[in-house]
Each structure stands twice: as structure tokens, then as C-alpha cells.
Amino acid sequence: MLLVDDDLTSRLTLKAVLEAGGYFVDSAASAAEAVGKLDERQYELVLSDLQMESPEAGLKVLAHARLMDYKPATAILTTYQNRRPDPQRPFLIEPEALPELLSKVADLISQRAARIVARQLRQA
């Protein structure tokens, strides 16, 4: 998976937790770095902080990820305790909820796999 967060402490903490859960985690500190990584390799899941170098940087990362042919699962990651992204967005992973983090990540990857299988069945 690709973890995108400009806050070094949050990025390293989340990376350690996810790796301890058995996931391979690549990370990026900016939207530009994340876009470059998305173009270089395939990821099952992209977790991106909402606000980085600009208020919309995280959304740009997720929009770019959704344009990729391999269609990774995507989720907004927030480390802001008092700010919440748009409640209409289907996935929100908060580092403060670490006990639930691995379960949510597994669900996102599983849903992606189900979408891929369904797409392949429609094409067959």
C-alpha cells in the first residue's frame, strides 16, 4: 500500500503499525512524491492525508490513484483531531483509532479484490 502524509511522526507511526499487521507499506511525504510513486508501481491501497502542502493535496492524490488502470482502493487519512473531511466520503481512517485500523485496511483491500473479480466476470 502507499501511505501519504506530510507529518513525519504520523507517517512513521502508521507505517510501523501497518507493517506489524503484515502489510508492505511504501510512503510519500507529499502529493507530488505520491503521484510519482503511483506512476511507477501498483498499489492495492492508497491512504492519503487530506491536507498536506495545500488544502486539496490529498484529494488530488486520491483522484490520480483512481485514474490508474489497476484501480487501487483509496481512503482519506486524517491526523487532525478537530477537523473532519466531508462526511459523505465512504472511508475515513483516523490514527487515533489504531485498534480498528488494520480491520479497515483489510476491508478496503478485500472490497477492491471483489470489484476486480466482478469486473473480470462481466468481461468473460
Structural notes for this entry:
With 124 residues, the protein is α/β, with parallel strands linked by helices. It has a single domain, classed as Response regulator (Rossmann fold, 3-Layer(aba) Sandwich), CATH 3.40.50. It contains four helices and five strands. The chain has a five-stranded parallel β-sheet with strand order 2-1-3-4-5, sandwiched between helices. Helix 2 runs parallel beside helix 3. 27% of the residues are buried. The mean pLDDT is 84.
Characteristic key phrases:
single chain, 124 residues, alpha/beta, Rossmann fold
Given the structure, what is the number of helices?
Answer: 4
Strand order of the largest sheet: 2-1-3-4-5
Round the Cα radius of gyration to an integer and report it: 14 Å
Which series of helices and strands comes N to C? EHEHEHEEH
**Biggest sheet character:** 5 strands, parallel
Residue runs with pLDDT of under 50 for 5 or more positions = none
Measured distance between first and last alpha carbons: 28 Å
Q: What is the averaged pLDDT score? A: 84
Overall 3D form:
globular
CATH superfamily: Response regulator
Number of domain units: 1
CATH class: Alpha Beta
Strand content: 5-15%
**Strand elements, count:** 5
Q: What is the fold named in CATH at topology level?
A: Rossmann fold
Structural class: alpha/beta
CATH architecture: 3-Layer(aba) Sandwich
Helix content: 40-55%
